[in-house]
Design brief:
The protein is an alpha/beta fold. Helix content is about 30%, strand content about 25%.
Length: about 550
Amino acid sequence: MTLALAGGTQDFPLTLTHVLGRARTVHHRAEVVSLLDAEGNRKRAPMAAVAERADRLAAGLRSLGVEPGDRVGTFAWNSQEHLEAYYAVPCSGAVLHTLNPRLSAEQVAYTINHARDRVILVDDSLVGEMEKVLPHLGDTVERFVVIGDGDAGALPGDPLRYEDLLAAQEPGFGWPELDERSAAALCYTSGTTGNPKGVLYSHRALCLHTLVMAGHDAYRMSERDRILAVVPMFHAMGWNLGYLAGAIGADLIMPGRYVQSEHLARLIGEERVTATCGVPTIWMDLLRYAGADLSSLELAICGGTQVPPGLMRDFEERHGVKVVQGWGMTETLPGAALAHDPPAAGEEERWHRREHAGRLSPFYEVRIVGADDEVVPNDGETPGEVEIRGPTVIGEYFENPEASAAAMHDGWLRTGDVGTLDSEGWLRITDRAKDVIKSGGEWISSVDLESALMAHPTVVEAAVIALPDERWSERPLACVVAAGEVSPEELREFIAPRVAKWWLPADFAYLEEIPKTSVGKFDKKILREMLATDRLPGRRRVG
């Protein structure tokens, strides 16, 4: 017997076409601002114009033979054109594949070949980078479309200009009816070990994530906000800001490739930005930038790696900006947990909670798994690997059964993070499983050591890796970037009240910069390789 839906509710499909329609009508006045050059020149467009151009782009891609299910790559920065592709490609039934220009040429080519992209949109500033990719490509790419009027001579096959493609189309597009479980977008992990792995998002997953992040206990952004989209649109769907803005009517400020402090400071001050998202290194640099007018800025969602407590305190005390830590992955979409101030909390409790990865967002479920795959209590103290499930969490990687089998555990995704969970849903990440330091049979949290070190006023960056030790198996090696002279003895003394005594490192390395991954995280794999090949500079030992 078939039962009617409760209360007579309609079986309404959750597709991004609805988000596009809302952006076009309800929020047609919302503004999209794109930074064009280092001099600060910008272009502006209301969301209604963005939607109209998305119509033309969808029609243009259809004229090039792109059919539902086909993959369309974007090799581009955060811009109005990239936002138009965010809507045009999936709403037409094709799949948006956001290519990461910060990967190596071989890795970019791998993702294109694995996804079997048919058309690629390329920002003119990235033509040179795409030229390096070309020798490694297979035969799936049929056409390149160039955003901008820069030289595109290095691209094969008579590349089209983006504006010419749009100009050749009639207004309007017959958007198809889509299944909410059909593929909408494809992102690849950053590939720090092995080849990048594909994460395929459905329309339903992206719509549900948009709805969850639009809630008060998630991103806490609304129609009144002007959002600076610093996190790249090729990193975990740009943390979904493109669709969130369309759903809630916020303005979007797009910095393009100009994410250095001087450009971000100018945009925040002149565009009166109220909210933003990005990795900690961006905000560390901005905090040190002299003369930044941050008077309009209220909220910065920060994630990708552990956020130093000192960074959060400095922004709040000096500029009145709440830097809110968040946690998530490409495989889960960002914002699975967010560390907003708990209601009616005292100062000590407030900052204690803000140092957590966050409190679980709706529709995410987490469990902590210890030795022998046993689930441990949610007591906020017992550590183990963090596993997660939910309607926006992947069940498998795109066409990669081996990686899928390794990642899934009884329907839960193994995150590779080590942490604790308490009874009120507060998640604390203490390390990556591959980064945890095992000393004398006990675990040392590299994340907590890094936070303690970066609280020192002279330390700009800190990353802690394991140093092989004959007696203890492993001991912590602190790799630091310092703005001035600071000895290992001084650093040990500074962090001694903040961590367990037996955690204190005796070995330090002083670097000019900590290597970073394509998404701005500290790349400890490179540090470990440098250590193994005796190329780690500035080695000093206490005493």
